């Protein structure tokens, strides 16, 4: 008996078309997923890339707005005083002198603001390595104290300096400006007949300087923003003279020296500013590594 084995039957045309349709749909879904994932990934990466740029633009706009506001105040005062005196038919020699004196004070305010704005702009450019040298910390502190002798005498405040025999590594003029700002801030926000105490010590390859006052102190909120440009804190602090630029300049100087600037304060009891700077060798004109 002979059995005939029939060859295997291939897929029908309908089955091939169905398989092709399923493959096409699968490829479409895969490509759609790839496009969506790539789009979301690109959007996320673009956001991460543009975020610093947007932040810089926002800071620049805020800076321009704040600077314009600070400039407007003395200019408005000048204009008001001049217009008020122009309305008078006669003006005495005494009144004219008082007007000129007041105008000069406002011009000094404008010049001071312009100098600080210029200094902030300069500090955005890094210091050249050749500008750094070994500088005596005792000398820096003594010079800064002398710079504010008049204000300290007026308020009957003593500034007590340590004798450290330590040397820091940096730009001498910038560092002197740094401590002058910190001393000025301590005097400005202290009542008469108080004390400002300066402490310093070596910590490994760094120098830690503390400027401690017995002034108004700051809230936690103020401490978070005190180094921002044009920030002057609560009403008690903002009532004092200044533009809110000094501590921002100090922060920039410290950053350029690869140091740190921090504050600890208790409202109504005083503040302590802590400066960390690179230590320099006493024997050699170089920074400790």
Automatic annotation (TrEMBL):
Gene Ontology CC annotations of this record: plasma membrane
Domain Histidine kinase: 66-281
Keywords assigned by UniProt, alphabetized: Kinase, Membrane, Phosphoprotein, Transferase, Transmembrane, Transmembrane helix, Two-component regulatory system
Cross-referenced CDD domains: HATPase, HisKA
The enzyme's E.C. designation: 2.7.13.3
SUPFAM superfamilies for the chain: ATPase domain of HSP90 chaperone/DNA topoisomerase II/histidine kinase, Homodimeric domain of signal transducing histidine kinase
GO molecular function: phosphoprotein phosphatase activity; phosphorelay sensor kinase activity
GO biological process terms, semicolon-separated: cellular response to phosphate starvation
Catalysis: reaction(s): ATP + protein L-histidine = ADP + protein N-phospho-L-histidine
One Pfam family this sequence matches: HATPase_c
Residue ranges of the TM segments: 27-46
Enzyme class: transferase
Designated name of the protein: histidine kinase
Organism for this UniProt entry: bioreactor metagenome
């Amino acid at each position: 008996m002979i059995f005939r084995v029939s060859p295997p039957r291939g897929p029908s045309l309908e089955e091939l078309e169905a398989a092709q349709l399923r493959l096409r749909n699968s490829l479409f879904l895969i490509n759609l997923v790839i496009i969506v994932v790539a789009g979301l990934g690109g959007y996320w990466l673009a956001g991460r890339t543009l975020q610093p740029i947007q932040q810089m633009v926002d800071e620049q706009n805020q800076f321009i707005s704040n600077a314009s506001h600070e400039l407007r105040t003395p200019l408005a005062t000048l204009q008001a005083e001049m217009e008020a005196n122009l309305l008078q038919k006669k003006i005495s020699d005494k009144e004219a002198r008082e007007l000129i004196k007041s105008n000069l004070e406002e011009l000094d305010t404008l010049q001071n603001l312009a100098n600080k704005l210029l200094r902030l702009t300069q500090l955005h450019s890094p210091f050249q390595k050749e500008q750094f040298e070994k500088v005596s910390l005792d000398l820096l502190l003594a010079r800064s104290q002398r710079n504010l002798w008049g204000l300290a005498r007026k308020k009957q405040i003593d500034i007590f300096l340590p004798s450290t025999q330590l040397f820091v590594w940096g730009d001498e003029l910038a560092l002197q400006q740094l401590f002058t700002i910190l001393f000025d801030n301590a005097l400005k926000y202290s009542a008469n007949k108080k004390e400002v105490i300066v402490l310093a010590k070596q910590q490994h390859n760094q120098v830690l300087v503390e400027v401690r006052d017995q002034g108004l102190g700051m809230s936690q909120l103020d401490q978070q923003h005190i180094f921002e440009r044009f920030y002057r804190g609560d009403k008690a602090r903002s009532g004092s003279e200044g533009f809110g630029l000094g501590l921002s300049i100090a922060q920039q100087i410290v950053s350029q020296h690869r140091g740190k600037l921090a504050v600890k304060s208790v409202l109504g009891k005083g503040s302590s500013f802590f400066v960390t700077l690179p230590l320099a060798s006493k024997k050699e004109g170089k920074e400790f590594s």
